[in-house]
Amino acid sequence: MKKICFVGGGNMASAMLAGLRREHPAPSCHVIEPYAPAREKLTALDVVVHAAACREAVDGADVVVLAVKPQMLKQACAELLPHLQGELIVSIAAGTRRASIARWLGADPTSARIVRTMPNTPALIGQGITGLFAPPSLSEADVATSTELMRSTGAVVRVESEAMIDAVTAVSGSGPAYVFHWIESMLAAAKGVGFNDADARTLVLATLKGATALAEASDESPAVLRERVTSKGGTTAAALAVINERGVQQALIDAVRAARDRGAELGAMADD
Predict the structure, then answer these.
(1) Helix (H) or strand (E) holding 168
(2) How much of the chain exceeds pLDDT 70, in percent?
(3) Could you give the CA distance from residue 150 to residue 129 in angstroms, rounded to a whole number?
(4) What is the phi/psi pair of residue 88, to 5°?
(5) What's the longest Cα–Cα distance across the chain?
(6) By C-alpha distance, which of 130, 133, 208, 115 is closest to 173?
(7) Minimal CA–CA distance to 138: which of 160, 103, 108, 110?
(8) Which CATH architecture has domain 175-264?
(9) Residues in Cβ contact with 11 at an 8 Å cutoff, skipping those fewer than 6 apart
(10) Residue 54 half-sphere exposure, CB side, CA atoms within 13 Å?
């Protein structure tokens, strides 16, 4: 890629810009950002910043990234529309369907060069994961370009239907919040059995990091790994008995489904 235009210069766009800067050679990056304080922050990232949509920002871009909040996307598309000439569009906006974006950009949803993605916040440190949906009508070159772009912040999983982007949002898009909630709970538990804040943090984060690394390195399922830690009648068994009694696993399954369903609702609302 030689040039990328970002519409919106918030945290996720900044994470992608930082990731692209790690590539050799890095592409020329233009950012359309109307908010002055955000433009000031972007100056440190070696990008060309524009206060409003313009042809200069888009001209010659291999891809235009829609990186504004979902509630601002319709207006951003309206401002961008006069300056587009059929460029590849990649959206990172949650809950907004390709059909809506295509309509706002005056394009045919069945043939529009629009890719829908859902990254997550670990992208800020280059360890994110992105779900990506590209319609069958899209060329392999466009799929490769959009995939390369999103790999600037971590791994990419391509899904076969747009509906699965709502599932990606529920599992990995919202997923860091579930993990942070677990960390909060474990920290409270550690302090509840006598540890100070610093030691509680060290123990909990190291345990999470180590267990995740072990799961990644092992060919065995998480269930088998869990069983190996759980001696019959031992301390882990006592803890898991409480967890199972309280229905924690089912609560998480239900939570993910609720997040998926809410994503679908938001998409339908945007279509109205």
Answers:
(1) helix 163-168
(2) 99
(3) 9
(4) -65, 130
(5) 69
(6) 130
(7) 110
(8) Orthogonal Bundle (1.10)
(9) 121, 124
(10) 12
> Is the pLDDT reported for residue 141 higher than 80?
yes
DSSP 58-80: HTT-SEEEE-S-HHHHHHHHHHH
The number of beta carbons lying within 10 Å of the beta carbon of residue 244 is 11
Q: Taking the model in full, what pTM does it have? A: 0.92
Written as one letter, the residue type at 242 is V
Q: Which two tokens stand for residue 145?
A: 């370009």
| DSSP letter, residue 167 | H
Q: How many CB atoms lie within 10 A of CB 239?
A: 12
Token output for 53: 């949509």
**In 119-173, which ranges are E strands?**
128-133, 154-158
Q: Do domains 3-159 and 175-264 have the same CATH topology?
A: no
As a whole number of angstroms, the distance between CA 169 and CA 175 comes to: 8
Is 3.40.50.720 the CATH classification of the domain at 3-159?
yes
Q: Any idea where the domains of the chain sit in the sequence?
A: 3-159, 175-264
How many angstroms separate the CA atoms of 22 and 25, rounded? 8
Residue 132 and residue 158 in contact, taking contact as beta carbons nearer than 8 Å: yes
Q: At 66, which amino acid appears?
A: L
Peptide bond into 27 cis (omega under 30): no
State how beta strands 128-133 and 154-158 pair: parallel
Angle at the Cα of 168 from the Cα atoms of 137 and 45, rounded to 5 degrees: 85
Length of the chain: 272
DSSP secondary structure code for residue 43 in this structure: G
Q: Euclidean distance between the first and final Cα of the chain, in Å?
A: 35
List pLDDT tens digits, range 46-96. 899 999 999 999 999 999 999 999 999 999 999 999 999 999 999 999 889
Q: Round to whole Å and give the CA distance between 70 and 106.
A: 18
